[in-house]
Amino acid sequence: MLAKTETATFLDDLFDTGLLIETGVDGLYGRSGLFEAIGDGFQAMVTRYGAADEPEVVRFPPAMSRQVFEKSGYMKSFPQLAGTVHCFCGNPADHVSLLQTIEQGGDWTEGQKASEIVLTPAACYPLYPTAAKRGTLPDEGRLFDLMSYCFRHEPSQDPARQQFFRMREFVRMGTPEQVTEFRASWLERGQALIAELGLPFTVDVANDPFFGRTGKMLAVNQRDQRLKFELLIAIESEEKPTACLSFNYHQDHFGKTFGLTTEGGEVGHTACVGFGHERVILALLKHYGTNVDRWPASLRHSLGL
Question: Which of 52, 114, 138, 255 has its CA 20 to 30 Å from the CA of residue 80?
Answer without folding.
Answer: 255
